[in-house]
Amino acid sequence: MAELAVSIAVNVLLGIVLAALLYRRRADDGGLLGGAGEALDVFRSRFPDTQGAATVSADRRAALIELPKDAGIGLVQRQGRRWNARLLAPGEVRSVKHSPPDALDVEFADFGWPRARIRIADPAARAAWMARLDARGAGAPPRSVRHA
Amino acid sequence: MPDPAYFQAAMVAQLLLLLLIPLEILLASRARIRAEYDMNDTLANVAVSVGSIFFWGTLSWMLFSAVTFAYGRRIYDVPFAAWSFLLAFVLEDFRYYWWHRIGHRSRWFWASHVVHHSSQHFNLSTNLRQSWTSQFSGLILLNVPLAFLGFSPGIIGLAFTVNLLYQFWIHTEAIDRMPRWFEWLLNTPSHHRVHHASNPRYLDANYAGVFMIWDRLFGTFVAEQADERPRYGIVRNLGTFNPIRIALHEYVSIARDLGRRNLGLAQRAGYLFGPPGWSHDGSRGTTEALRAAESERRRRDAPPATAPESRRPTDCPPVSA
Prior knowledge:
The complex is a heterodimer.
Chain A: H1 2-23, H2 36-46, E1 53-56, E2 62-66, E3 73-79, E4 82-88, E5 93-99, E6 103-108, E7 115-119, H3 123-137
Antiparallel strand pairs in A: 1-2, 2-3, 3-4, 5-6, 6-7
Chain B: H1 4-29, H2 39-71, H3 82-105, H4 107-117, H5 144-149, H6 153-166, H7 180-185, H8 189-195, H9 213-218, H10 243-258, H11 265-273, H12 287-301
């Protein structure tokens, strides 16, 4: 048990040292989306050949992608210094809430990616995306056929 | 039994290896080497390691019990000597290869091992991101045969420790290639970058711990290509740095799948023990499906074939054999 405590203490100490070393690099922790084209490029790096129209968030840290022929919704989001891309299948959106002034707080039915905040300044676009995202959850088929 | 001094030396080596992490950060910040760190990612690695050490420390009796039980029924007495340690080391590495391969190819075991692959970065701190559940996934039983053969728990433990210590240095982008003979025989940063990549062509490859011969022998070796940089992480990357979510997310996902209605027993077994990405309706992609789609895309996008004599000899050469 003493060895266990020492090992954990060493790791905690290591964490403090690493945090101190990395803290000053945090400010330049990567880029922001330059526009809809770049958002699509990020999405295509995971889902090649995707065609669609991207709406980049006001803070340029996320984008929603309308895929053609009701293929669903794509999401690109900053995750530290990397970009995550996800195709939102029916049932993946648990809830969508408007968080004033301009954000949509989306909760996913995914323990590994629980939520996202997407800021959309244009009220009409925000309302439209809210409705589309909401349809990915509330309007989803029952659990047994969600992936059918 | 090995002298306890060997284990103390291994402990000291482990501590010294940990010091390489801040060194890598410092050298990278001065642009001396290639290494990319993200503060949240690195701290998540440390937090996951604390949980991993806790569960390893409190549950390692399960592994020791299994090995000790088998050693009590051994068919031969292997003495502790240089030759027996080397033999144990090679056999332990063989055990590691299959442990690792099963850990990638069956979802129940992947749920434990995915933790180590869930970072989108690849640096020395990635070593710290280890499973919390390795003790009760069931794969500890792979340690039993060596003990049954007559290798003492001490020799097995030492071989296991040295194997893991070796793997520390291969989690880096700072080293491009080792000498050709080294790349052929042993696991290297290049081979392990492929292993941590989620590009379809790199998925489920290079399972070796120390000796690459196992991958070459069993057809799982893939060389790092100059024209395709590894994209680290998993097919469905995480959107969180929360260590509890990192450690347990795949178990929750399995539980959700098993909780579906209208599934047969075979389909439930598929969600539990099938390869990651398996689904009863084909709506997700296994490694094979992702590779096939990627191959099809490459074939479609490839420029029209040119006559062999007009092809430049340097077109997309593999970086290593």
